[in-house]
Amino acid sequence: MKPKILVKAERGNFPEKIHYGFISVINEEFKYVLKIGDDNNIPFPFRSGAKPLQATAVIDTDTHKYFNFRGEELALFCASHAGTAEHIAKISQILEKTGLNLENLQCGSHMPLDADEQKKMIIEGKPPTPLHNNCSGKHAGMLSVCIKNNWDINTYLKPDHPVQKLIMQNIKDLCGLKNLPEIALDGCSAPVPILPHYNMGVGFLNLFSKPEYEPIKLAMAKNPFLSGGHGRLDSEIISASNGNIIAKVAAEGVCIVVNLEKKQVLVVKIIDADFKARAVVVIESVKKLGWLSEEQINSSERLKKMYDKQITNWKQEIVGEIKILF
Fold first, then answer.
1. Average confidence score pLDDT of the chain
2. How far apart are the first and last CA of the chain?
3. Element containing residue 98 per DSSP (H, E)
4. 3-state SS class at 105
5. What's the rounded Cα separation, in Å, for the pair 87 and 75?
6. Staple partner for 238: which of 5, 177, 224, 259, CB 3.0–4.6 Å?
7. How many domains does the structure of the chain reveal?
8. In contact, 140 and 87? CB cutoff 8 Å
9. Quick one: pLDDT at residue 191?
């Protein structure tokens, strides 16, 4: 691999952190419009970036019609949500609608990603439940498919389970793979496909261009908060663009952004998975591509804060700067 230096953090004009990575833009003909860094087409775990593609199982089996799922619920199936009270309430409603309960979620528990919600739980001495897991919406979606099709709900995470076989077949087809992807286990214990960044981008382009998956596209475009949360990079980009751009973050420095009008996809990977570097690179990229204007970025306080390249100390003195090198 030959990653490029994308951003450098300097303190007092001295380099402190250097972030390497890859940037690519692919058009509707699946050709590179832009490529910075060469990943040699090495496959990487898709992690949470795969969630919108995993949600296709809900559509293909007509589970969304069977349970009359609305856009809000579909958005949660695609989400890496922040675990706010609103997220928890709506996932609880999905479980109730499908006849499931908390014990059926096999994603494990972690504290909410939302800082305010996390602080509140600590003060109240409340432990997290599987509902707080950022992947609980995805798991609720998989389980709802099992309920509709009378598939075993106790083994829904096994790679040979019908719901996982359907998902991996869809990922193969949407992402333009010759064979079914290799798999590993995600942090939430679900099978996660392994594929090159290029094919991740192809998958998103296909997903959002196929009429049958229009409900997924509209769900994410119209429900940015439920798709992530306040201060989440993907949610803030969707919101700032008024749903014309759909973004999805994934673990370990990945973010995928689709311009629905131009039918192009941006794929960013930060090698050291630094959150700030990823935010700066993604926002700078959509700005340079003309997908978001300076005005749109500045109109979002949270997006503006993520894009802030000044380094300050505890007294709010400017002590350094993040420099963009692409």
1. 96
2. 18
3. helix 85-98
4. coil
5. 11
6. 224
7. 1
8. no
9. 97
d(CA 266, CA 276): 18
Secondary structure letter of residue 2 according to DSSP = B
| Model confidence band, residue 96 (pLDDT cutoffs 50, 70, 90) | very high
Coil, strand or helix: which one is 322? strand
Q: What angle do CA 211, 213, 218 make, to 5 degrees?
A: 100
List the structure tokens of 70. 């609305």
What distances in angstroms separate CA 150 from CA 54, 75, 166, one per listed residue? Answer: 19, 24, 15
DSSP reduced 3-state for 107: coil
Is residue 313 situated within a structural domain?
Answer: no
Say what the alpha-carbon torsion angle 94, 96, 98, 102 is, to the nearest 10 degrees: 80
Residues with Cβ within 8 Å of 292's Cβ and at least 6 positions away in sequence, in order, are 237, 240, 241, 245, 283, 286
CB 326 within 8 A of CB 23: yes
- Across the range 313-317, mean pLDDT stands at 95
- Domain residues for the domain of 108 are 48-195
Helices 136-149, 85-98: crossing angle, 10 deg rounding: 10
pLDDT for residue 157: 98
Q: Is residue 299 part of a domain?
A: no
- Identify the residue whose tokens are 């300050």: 312
In this structure, is residue 260 part of a structural domain?
no
Partnered with residue 36 across adjacent β-strands are 23
CA distances for 22 relative to 9, 82, 83, 174, 181, angstroms? 18, 26, 30, 22, 21
Within-domain flag for 309: no
